[in-house]
Backbone:
């Protein structure tokens, strides 16, 4: 796999400037994008995901023959998507315009920003640009999918040129290390995308968000700002990751038993804080859960996590370590059914059995939709005699997204001419719009788009066009991408609600007589052994219908199947109030 570093000095890459722009600046003293020509080609901003949802972020910028993509994420299926593994944006527009595609630029390594890449690269070839940790996580994913790719490392401060687009990468802070935002110089002006961010003045890695650079760019003029809206409803400031460290210390101080901490594997800063606290209190650290092991190993390799020699112990060797000298860092903070913490809670973990007095910390808040799963796990752990500390009890998690005061600061620094709230459900986008207006943003300069809409920018003319591309969600199930649609989902829903009855009969074509069956087989409908009367009566209903229509000369099997299905459906409904899926199979012999 090509993993080439761009030959740009760290922090010095800002000087890249095209000749035309340099000339324009020399003549007028203003950047070229300030005075677009009349009838100039528009810059198109087309989000394919991430609007009216939190997940599968993906935005296209298109100018004439050039397209770049900001992020390519996935989201998790909701409750109605039976059997679906993940959800990705519809790449149709990208595939149709693939010859224009110059590259994908990534803000950070969360699944909702990188999870769609393997699926995109199956359809189109293009270089991928991201910071070291982001690309490390992408590379792991691509290896799993067996896909080779052109990966290019960028550093905060670099400027890269893709087609007409000049992209400056700026350091930001978020719940994953190495997050950046992009200031993109285009022929239609400066487009600024914040990525996911919060303003952390005291991040664990000591690399704070580059507010100074934001102010400089804001003073030069930002045409369009796209900003994270996740916490647009939350007042105040998001606390620094430092707070979590302090809470951890307080907890560690008073505990003499074993400590088990569940958190997001991608939050390498949090993992580092846990390791530091463990070291401070003379404890060794064991890692449990596949994704936690993968990310921690990657982060150690790339230098994002440092663990002093002798501190890390193999999870299968923890028996030799006294409880008061051990911390286990595990996956499962969201109550995921197959995760290590859930397996501990259900006695299914190979090396860790929960015992009375264990101190278990869930260092995260449940993502909306996961609340029940998390409280089930918490209850199981309490039942086993463990002490469980979760976010309701102590500050052991802080959000990775900016709250209202931070959003205000960002608006004030960047002072965009136009604003498009992104990364949020409709309520977040609308609230973020109102917040911008309260800061003096003109109402008709704020655009709330839906996935697949297009914002065209040409000078002072900025217009929204609906449905330029497909903003549909594409479902991934096993190896199948997009082959499960609404009809399959409807069937899965019906099967899941009332089960299935299959009617099998063999019919002799020549005589139009039933020679075998009808037999009724059911799955997920009733327990047949305890409902022999019902199933017997159902079989009679089927036999009667077959006899009646076949003796009156009906030989079209589709009509017969329809009659049988209708009769059995009413019989079942009258007797049970249920509507299972009924599937007649007639064999011709
Ligand atoms: Zn994120
Ligand atoms: Zn995100």
Residues:
């Amino acid at each position: 796999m090509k993993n080439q570093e761009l030959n740009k000095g760290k922090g010095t890459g800002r000087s890249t400037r095209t000749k035309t722009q340099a000339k324009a600046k020399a003549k007028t003293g203003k950047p070229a994008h300030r005075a677009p020509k009349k009838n100039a080609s528009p810059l198109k901003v087309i989000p394919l995901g991430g609007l009216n949802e939190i997940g599968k972020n993906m935005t296209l910028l298109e100018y004439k023959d050039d397209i770049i993509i900001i992020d390519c994420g996935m989201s998790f299926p909701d409750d109605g998507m039976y059997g679906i593994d993940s959800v990705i944006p519809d790449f149709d527009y990208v595939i149709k315009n693939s010859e224009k595609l110059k590259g994908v630029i990534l803000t950070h390594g969360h699944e909702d920003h990188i999870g769609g890449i393997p699926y995109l690269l199956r359809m189109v070839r293009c270089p991928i640009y991201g910071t070291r940790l982001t690309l490390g996580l992408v590379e792991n994913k691509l290896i799993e999918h067996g896909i080779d790719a052109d990966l290019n490392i960028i550093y905060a401060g670099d400027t890269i040129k893709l087609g007409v687009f000049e992209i400056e990468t700026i350091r930001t802070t978020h719940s994953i290390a190495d997050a950046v935002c992009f200031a993109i110089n285009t022929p239609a002006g400066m487009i600024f995308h914040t990525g996911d961010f919060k303003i952390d003045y005291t991040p664990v890695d000591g690399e704070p968000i580059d507010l100074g650079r934001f102010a400089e760019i804001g003073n030069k003029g930002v045409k369009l700002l796209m900003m994270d809206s996740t916490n647009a409803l939350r007042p105040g400031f998001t606390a620094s990751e430092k707070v979590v460290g302090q809470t951890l210390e307080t907890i560690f101080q008073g505990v003499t038993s074993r400590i088990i901490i569940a958190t997001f594997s991608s939050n390498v800063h949090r993992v580092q804080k846990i390791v530091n606290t463990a070291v401070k209190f003379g404890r060794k650290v064991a890692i449990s859960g596949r994704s936690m092991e993968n990310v921690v190993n990657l982060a150690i390799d790339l230098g994002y996590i440092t663990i002093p020699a002798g501190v890390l112990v193999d999870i299968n060797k923890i028996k030799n370590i006294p409880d008061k000298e051990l911390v286990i860092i595990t996956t499962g903070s969201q109550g995921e059914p197959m995760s290590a913490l859930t397996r501990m809670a259900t006695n299914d973990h190979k090396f860790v059995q929960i015992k009375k007095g264990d101190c278990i910390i869930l260092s995260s808040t449940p993502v909306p939709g996961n609340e029940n799963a998390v409280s089930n796990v918490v209850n199981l752990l309490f039942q086993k005699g463990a002490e469980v500390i979760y976010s309701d009890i102590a500050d052991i998690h802080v959000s990775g997204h900016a709250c209202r005061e931070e959003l205000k600061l960002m608006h004030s620094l960047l002072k965009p001419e136009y604003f498009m709230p992104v990364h949020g459900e409709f309520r977040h986008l609308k609230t973020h719009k109102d917040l911008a207006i309260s800061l003096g943003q003109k109402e008709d300069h704020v655009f709330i788009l839906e996935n697949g809409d297009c914002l065209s920018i040409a000078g002072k003319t900025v217009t929204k066009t609906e449905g330029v591309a497909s903003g549909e969600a594409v479902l991934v199930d096993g190896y199948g991408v997009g082959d499960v649609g609404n009809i399959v989902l409807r069937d899965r829903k019906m099967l899941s609600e009332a089960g299935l009855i299959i009617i099998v009969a063999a019919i002799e074509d020549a005589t139009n007589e039933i020679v075998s069956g009808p037999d009724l087989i059911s799955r997920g409908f009733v327990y047949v052994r305890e409902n022999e009367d019902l199933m017997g009566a159902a079989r009679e209903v089927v036999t009667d219908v077959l006899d009646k229509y076949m003796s009156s000369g009906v030989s079209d099997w589709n009509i017969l199947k329809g009659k049988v299905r209708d009769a059995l459906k009413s019989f079942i409904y009258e007797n049970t109030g249920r509507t299972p899926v009924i599937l007649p199979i007639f064999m011709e012999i």
About this structure: The pocket of zinc ion (ligand 2) is lined by residues 57, 110, 112-113, 196, 423 (CB under 6 Å). Confidence is low (pLDDT under 50) at residues 1-32. The domain at 40-236+400-478 is CATH 3.60.15.10 (Metallo-beta-lactamase; Chain A).
